[in-house]
């Protein structure tokens, strides 16, 4: 469920609307050490242009060659299976490490209405399952949950797609600019809230989208969900704590606030005094980021985004000791 694959589907939709022929490849099974996981996608346009990836590069070259030398069938079954790396020699030829093997679906995109529907549902922040019938090429869409995974039984492929991960920054200061830039490179949808007009100057639209209102209103107005991270960076407890009181009771997967260990402990005590439960306060990350000896704004941004990505990917950071939880 990688939002990078949504960019592949956006290109598929654009190409098909322009009358281009498109073949969509999806990784459905891997054995050994394969470069890309099940669900990874690549789209091949009729003139050989590609977007996405299913390996480290060598398999992409062969897929293009299949189109150019006529191995790619122009008729017959709408979906076929293509396997790479069955033998050790072939694994070495295509750059698959440790004798890895991967199997792809090769799908001619004829009726592309499902692509538009899937993208529209993801834009509405819905997690969607796409089921592909290999015998007929038929595609059906249904709602899915964040715990669903890619499945393939030899006859049907069920792949999961979701909206982009989001990062809401409370505060538009210098540190937020570095965080926003790194988050965008990691394909996060960046949102910024700062009611202080003095800090808004110099932000460009490509850096992120501003959410109007006070911080607590912003947390509510963006409809915070489990694919949202919220980080308070104003260093002003009047603004940061306002956001935290709402965020810590939301379903955001990461909630953090800038501050030293001493200030972070004081913040926990203040939140408890304001009536927030110990369970909610325990969700707060502070000090933010992994311990890399960071001092400059860019280094702090790097440590923060490393921690957010680790938690997004289900990895529990071990580089810092947790602060004690304040009792109710």
Question: What are the SSEs and their pairings?
Answer:
Elements: H1 3-17, E1 22-31, E2 41-45, E3 50-52, H2 58-68, E4 79-84, H3 88-93, E5 101-108, H4 113-123, E6 128-133, E7 139-143, E8 151-152, E9 156-161, E10 166-170, H5 174-185, E11 189-193, E12 209-210, H6 215-221, E13 228-232, H7 237-247, E14 254-257, H8 261-273, H9 278-281, E15 284-285, H10 297-312
Parallel strand pairs: 10-11, 10-13, 11-12, 13-14, 14-15
Antiparallel strand pairs: 1-2, 1-5, 2-3, 4-5, 6-7, 6-9, 8-9
Search tags:
328 residues; alpha/beta; Rossmann fold; 2 domains; six-stranded parallel sheet; five-stranded antiparallel sheet; 10 helices; 15 strands; 32% helix; elongated
Describe the structure.
The chain is an alpha/beta fold and 328 residues long. It has two domains: 3-161, no CATH class; 166-312, Rossmann fold (3-Layer(aba) Sandwich). Helix content is 32%, strand content 23%. It contains ten helices and 15 strands. The chain has helices at residues 3-17, 58-68, 88-93, 113-123, 174-185, 215-221, 237-247, 261-273, 278-281, 297-312; strands at 22-31, 41-45, 50-52, 79-84, 101-108, 128-133, 139-143, 151-152, 156-161, 166-170, 189-193, 209-210, 228-232, 254-257, 284-285. It is elongated and about 70 Å long. The protein starts with a helix and ends in a 16-residue tail after the last helix.
């Amino acid at each position: 469920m990688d939002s990078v694959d949504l960019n592949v589907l956006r290109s598929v939709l654009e190409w098909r609307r322009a009358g281009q022929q498109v073949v969509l490849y999806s990784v459905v099974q891997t054995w050994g050490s394969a470069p890309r996981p099940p669900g990874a996608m690549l789209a091949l346009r009729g003139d050989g242009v590609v977007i996405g990836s299913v390996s480290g590069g060598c398999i992409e070259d062969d897929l293009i060659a299949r189109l150019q030398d006529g191995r790619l069938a122009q008729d017959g079954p709408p979906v076929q299976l293509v396997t790479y790396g069955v033998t050790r020699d072939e694994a070495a030829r295509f750059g698959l490490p440790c004798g890895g093997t991967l199997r792809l679906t090769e799908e001619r995109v004829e009726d592309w209405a499902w692509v538009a529907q899937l993208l529209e549902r993801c834009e509405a922040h819905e997690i969607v399952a796409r089921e592909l019938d290999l015998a007929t090429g038929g595609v059906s869409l249904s709602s899915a949950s964040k715990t669903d995974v890619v499945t393939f039984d030899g006859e049907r492929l069920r792949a999961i797609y979701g909206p982009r991960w989001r990062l809401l920054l409370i505060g538009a200061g210098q540190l937020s600019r570095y965080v926003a830039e790194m988050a965008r490179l990691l394909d996060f949808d960046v949102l910024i809230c700062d009611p202080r007009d003095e800090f808004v100057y110099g932000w460009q639209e490509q850096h992120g989208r501003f959410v109007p209102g006070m911080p607590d209103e912003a947390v509510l107005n963006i409809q915070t969900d489990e694919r949202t991270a919220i980080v308070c960076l104003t260093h002003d407890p009047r603004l940061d704590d306002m956001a935290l009181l709402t965020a810590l009771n939301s379903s955001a997967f990461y909630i953090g606030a800038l501050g030293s260990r001493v200030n972070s402990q004081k913040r926990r005590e203040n939140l408890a005094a304001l009536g927030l439960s110990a369970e909610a306060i325990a969700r707060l990350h502070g000090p933010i980021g992994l311990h890399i000896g960071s001092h400059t704004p860019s280094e702090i941004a790097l440590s923060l985004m490393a921690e957010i990505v680790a938690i997004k990917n289900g990895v529990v950071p071990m580089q810092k000791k947790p602060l004690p939880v304040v009792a109710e």
